Amino acid sequence: MSASNRTVPGLLWRRTGAASLAALATCLLAAPALAQETPPAAAPLPEPQATPPSDQADDIATSAQDIVVTGSRIQASGFNAPTPTTVIGEEQIAANAQPNVFTTIAQLPSLQGSSGTQTNTFSTSSGAQGLSSFSLRGVGAIRTLTLLDGQRVVGANVTGVPDISLFPQLLIRRVDVVNGGASASYGSDAVGGVVNFITDTRFKGIKGNVQGSITDYADDETVLVQLAGGTSFLDETVHLVVSTEYGNEAGVGPGPYGIGLAGGRDWFVQRTLVNRNITNDGNPQLVLRDFAQSIGFTKFGLITAGPLQGTAFDEAGNPFAFEYGSNGVPARNAAGTVIGCDFGFCQGGDVSGNVDSGRSLKSSIERLNAYTRLGWDFAPNNELYVSVNLGQVRTQNQPINGQNRPNLTIQCENPFVPQLVRNQCAAAGITSFRFGTSNASLGSTQVRTDRRQYRFVAGAKGRTPVFGTDWNYDIYFEHGTNYSDIEVSNIHLSRRFDRAIDAITLNGQIVCRDPVARANGCQPLNIIGGNPSEAALRYVQPENGPFQRTRQTQDVVSLNFSGQPFDLWAGPVSVAFGGEARHEFYRVYGDPYGGGFGNAPDNANYPVDPTLLAGGANWYAGNYYPGTGAYSVREAYVEVDLPIINSDGLGRANINGAARVTDYSTSGTVWTWKIGGTWDLPLDGFRIRGVASRDIRAPNLSELFAAPVTTTLPNFFDPFNNRNVLALQYSVGNTELTPEIARYNTLGAALANPSWLPGLNISFDWYNIKIDDVIGSLGAGDIVNYCFTNILPQTCDAFNLNNPNGPNFINVQSFNFASIETEGFDIEASYQWRNPLGLPGQFVLRGLATHVAKYVSDSGLPGTIPNDSAGQNFGATPDWKWLVTQSYSNDQFSLLLQQRWFTSGVINNNYVECNPGSCPVSTGNNQTISPEDNFVPGAFYFDVGGTYNLTEEVTAYFKVDNLFDEDPALSPFFSNPALYDALGRTYRAGVRFKF
Q1: What is the CA radius of gyration of the chain?
Q2: Model-level pTM?
Q3: Sign of the CA dihedral running 802, 807, 808, 811
Q4: Which among 629, 749, 608, 625 has a CA at the least distance from the CA of 678?
Q5: Taking a C-beta distance cutoff of 8 angstroms, is the pair 255, 261 a contact?
Q6: How many domains are there within the chain?
Q7: Would residue 964 be called left, alpha or beta, if left means φ above 0 and alpha means ψ between -120 and 50 degrees?
Q8: Are 514 and 498 contacting, i.e. CB atoms less than 8 angstroms apart?
Q9: Within a domain: residue 793?
């Protein structure tokens, strides 16, 4: 399908942009209504406190209703939720001046491994390019629940995670980050915690923001335009808010071949972790090498084995002697050994063909969204409302330079082989040679995504007296649809490529050797050098490349009630209860060449070719397969807050407990619960708190219902009958998966606003999360062998190798067998100083830190050992991660200083560090490496920003991120965008206005 043949939903969005907001609001006046909270009026939020549990809501409430801070479902004045919650207000979001609010929230230390525009840029087939989603505690975006106004959001990816770029960002009032399990309150996926975006539903006036930015390297040019408006009418009973925004971030990359990066960045040196494959000579098995050079390919081709090894070709196809690094000398044997080089790599020499520099450092992203909410106060403190959120996000990235093929066989008689080389073949008595190329002449792969969200909510929320006490209710229906399109260009069909490069001369014409391929349009391809014909390029890389089309829907009906039915000796008992019904559906298909004929409705653009596999998997990368499935969820919960102490001598304490029963149509019934409490001691401002909970993550639609992908295994070993058999491997979803089960424990203490130093807040919270039955996958051989040895009996139902009525098969699917355990603590502190040193205004100091003491992943498979990735700086969980800000503001201007840093670490904790000459025997689970090579430095980033009020309504601002232009750490895996900033110094400036 070409880019112009968009689906109807894509056309709908283009017709429903900012210009139609007024018409959309008019339509909503006649729409059915149902619910939402009435948040505070437009009073400014205070600085977030170091210990902002739910009682912080009392500080910001300016309406009759109580405000729910996300750690609990309880709505009650003075209630203290025991789960640690960090609150980021709109003032802090504005001060950070990012083009996407996702970046601001992802900087919090407890968020580790979040996905954004600088991650997922190195892959072709993941489907997550440009997707902005949060990961709390490093346990992954699929285990972090993201809400909008306390409500679920339809997934923007087959894993079910939403895209924050599609949220209405200018109306965000605050963001609550619950650092810990909350499944008993909010349901599945809240294993790492909850991120809840709260919007301003009673905004009055007009406000806007215009921002531009650029890096110090003159790239990633960014434009952001936001506009919102709100009004009330009919005696202040009807409230309308609308917003729209457009953002365009140009992204960064790619660089040229070799070691150059985009914009002249000079930190990349092709650092590579080389496996010497020598385990017992007393020296480390693993060594780091800078300016590493693969001996398997070059930019325009290299003969890699045999008598002609070391012959390379320039762009014109002329042969020359390749310069190996490390003074390497080709052995010219069948193995392709290079004497003087490490296994597979030399150091230095001609590195012009290296491909890693072609990775995008940041995906480009263009986003557009519109939001409208209409509410009607049909009685005091009671509201009916509807809201509509339409959003579109487009991204583009380049995974790598070229399309590397290191192990090709070229016949000496190939007419594209230079005559000099053919003569050398004859002299050496060979008829073919091994050949490697990065295929620079084919161009580099481009991946484009287009995500479109249509979300509608209707509800009722308010407060009403029942049997003499006030009860809060929150009832809503949500329907969301997300369309995700992925298109890949400049990528070859492997089987066509293999036939096109095998050229012969027939009747004086250069043609493809394979007669079937010739009859179906094969055009001979010259890959010796960089000058293929246009016809050959179009044959191996047709204009209609790989694509994926996904449609996901989510329907939710939710009812929530809370109140204080009676009093006890220490105060009123608070109760919340409710239920939810949810239906999730997805359908995905790919192009016929990638996903197989019969799976997509537009096969006409992909004619049948007998040289290709009818079942798909024909592309070099980007083979997207079909799938469809749905599941339903019904659940009910109850939460109780029981005050147990309320006296001057003992202080004030409460116990908070919740339980939820959830029934999945796929996996049955599961219970979650939590029990915790807080105790305000009779010490000025001192509080202790703790929670224990049982949480879940249900298998997502892709894990459950991925469609079969068939691979032929011609000589698969059957251990039951001691024979080799022809078997078919089916990669499929597993509808027998059960939810992952987590146990979360936290214990903390806080000092809040003591009388001896008003404005001071400090908190310390220890946490531990243990997740069992983690969903993971196995290979075909493992599935059969683990059944044969009775190590994992659950795999025995996944294959049949003695089937008289059909083919032998192995279903390669996910199982519940792995585990994750992480432990650490959070520190948060802030101090507010009004009129510092006699100056008008306010000084605020705030710091947050997370220490990950351990993060142990255990595959649960025999022959493997657990891996503790805490402090592995090529993951997402460094030992320490900090965020500190200092700000001063008055009526005229403000100044912000921000520091972000994390500690040094290692490549892998399972490596055995030893000095050359004294290393033990290296093993597969514990490979040896020198301490210097296993060291990975941390990073320190310093940001500065400020504002100046041009008038009472108009404010100019600036921000410089990474002021000292800190380069990312040198990496054997290119770079780690989950931790390091690869862009460098970035300048931002803009104007905000509010009338």
Answers
A1: 30
A2: 0.88
A3: negative
A4: 749
A5: yes
A6: 1
A7: alpha
A8: no
A9: yes
